[in-house]
C-alpha cells in the first residue's frame, strides 16, 4: 500500500507542475496581447485626433482656397492664349498648281511628232546618198572612174535575178570590192532610192524586205501594154 501511495503522490506532483507551467505561459501571453492592444489603441486615438484637426482646417480654408485656385487657373489660361496668338504664323493661301500633263497624252504627242519627222529624215537620207554618188561620179570623170554604189547595186541585182535583202547585197559588195567601204545603212538607203525611181522592186516576206532588179525595157513594154489592155 505504501508503494501505491508514493506513486499516486508522484503523479499529483507532476500534474501540479504541468498546470503551474501552463498557467504561467498563459498569463505572460495575455500580458503581451494586452500591451499590443494598448499600443494600437493609442495609435488609433492619435489618428482620430489628427483626422479631426485636418477636417477643421479644410472647412476653415476651403472657400478661400477654391476661389484663389480659380483665379490662378484663369490668369494662366489667358497668358498662355496670348503667347500662342503671338507665336502662331499667318496662314498663307497656296497658289493654284498648273494641271500636270497626262502621262498617256505625252507619248501620243511624241509618237505623232516622230511620225511627222520620219518621212523628212528618210527623204534627207536618200538625197544625201544621191549627192554622195553624184559627187563621186564628178570626181571620177572619164573612162577610168569607178562605178557608183547605185550602179554596183543595180548590176548585182540584175546578175542574180532573184530577190535579195539589203544585208545580202552589202555582204556581196564587200567581198567583191574590198577596197571600198560598204555600209549596210547606206546600201539600204540606196536601194530605197532605186525603188523610188522604179529601177528596183521591193517586196516583203513576213518581217524581211527583199529587192529585185527591174528590167527597163520590160518595164517600158508593160507600161505601153497597159492602155491597150484597159
Helix content: over 70%
The strands making up the biggest β-sheet line up spatially as 1-2
Q: What's the CATH topology label of one domain?
A: Arc Repressor Mutant, subunit A
Going by CATH, the architecture of one domain would be Orthogonal Bundle
CATH homologous superfamily designation of one domain = Winged helix-like DNA-binding domain superfamily/Winged helix DNA-binding domain
Q: Tell me the name of the CATH class of one domain.
A: Mainly Alpha
Number of strands: 2
Q: What's the end-to-end separation, in Å?
A: 177 Å
Beta-sheet strand percentage?
A: 5-15%
Organism: Streptomyces tsukubensis
InterPro entries: WH-like_DNA-bd_sf, WH_DNA-bd_sf
Protein name: Regulatory protein
Describe this structure in words.
The protein has 230 residues and is mainly α. Among the domains are: 1-50; 147-224, Arc Repressor Mutant, subunit A, CATH 1.10.10. The protein contains six helices and two strands, in the order αααααββα. Strands 1-2 form a two-stranded antiparallel sheet. A hairpin with a 2-residue loop joins strand 1 (200-205) and strand 2. Helix 2 crosses helix 5 (184-196) and helix 3 (149-160) packs across helix 5.
Features:
two-stranded antiparallel sheet, single chain, WH_DNA-bd_sf, elongated, 230 residues, Arc Repressor Mutant, subunit A, Regulatory protein, mainly alpha, WH-like_DNA-bd_sf
Which helices and strands, and how do they pair?
Layout: H1 2-87, H2 105-139, H3 149-160, H4 166-176, H5 184-196, E1 200-205, E2 208-213, H6 216-229
Antiparallel strand pairs: 1-2
